[in-house]
Amino acid sequence: MRKVSARRTIENTLRRYGFVCVAGVDEVGRGCLAGPVMAGAVILDPHRRIDGLADSKALSAAQRERLHEEIIGKSIAWTVVSVTPGEIDRINIHQATLLAMRRAVLALAPLPDAVLVDAFRIPSLPMAQRGVVGGDRRSSAIAAASIVAKVTRDRLMQELHAADPRYGFDRHKGYATADHLAAVARFGYSPQHRRSFRPATLFDTIA
Fold first, then answer.
1. Sequence-ordered list of residues with C-beta below 8 angstroms from that of 162, at least 6 positions apart, any chain
2. pTM of the full predicted structure?
3. Is the residue at 67 inside a domain?
4. Less CB within 10 Å around the terminal CB: N or C of the chain?
């Protein structure tokens, strides 16, 4: 994916309309077979520039780590929350994603008075919000949220790998790669797997 630096144009427009604290929110891990879905929310400081903000998927791991430290050091507020595989199985991945993003926004201190969301709207938020298609490429606040969520989740998947190296979570971070599917076919699901996610290639082989 080609890196395109995100801008603050949308956030600056909202500030001209009188909004003071503008947050960006994004999720990571929605399409994974294992691990939680996580959401990050960030209120950037308009007076403290962070160069290189972009969609986390377009950045290298080293770039994400560097930006993560700069984001948490320079932002007005930031947070990352997760929804567990068990919760995902109970309420489905779409509802779990919305829940994670809502929790992330409401965990910010101070609370934002406007929220920019990647792609769609979050139900039941008590403040103004705008869904931005391609938001992690167009909005600096959403890009920052995607980076802190991605780094936090990748670190967790490294920890899960250290606890149980059979599945290779350190390599694929829970996504349904060929080696991950082969490990699941051999060992079955672990407590970190979403049992409601059943790839067709494994449906007849996993109890």
1. 170
2. 0.92
3. yes
4. C
- Report how many domains make up the chain: 1
Considering the domain boundaries, does residue 192 fall inside one?
Answer: no
Residue 57 lies in a domain: yes
Give 83-126 pLDDT, tens digit per residue.
999 999 999 999 999 999 999 999 999 999 999 998 889 999 99
Give residue-wise pLDDT tens across range 168-200.
Answer: 999 999 999 999 999 999 999 999 999 998 765
- Residue 71 in any domain: the answer is yes
- How far apart CA 149 and CA 128 sit, in angstroms, is 22
Place of tokens 């909202």: 14
Domain that holds residue 175: 9-187
Q: In whole angstroms, how far apart are CA 83 and each of 138, 143, 196, 206?
A: 26, 20, 14, 24
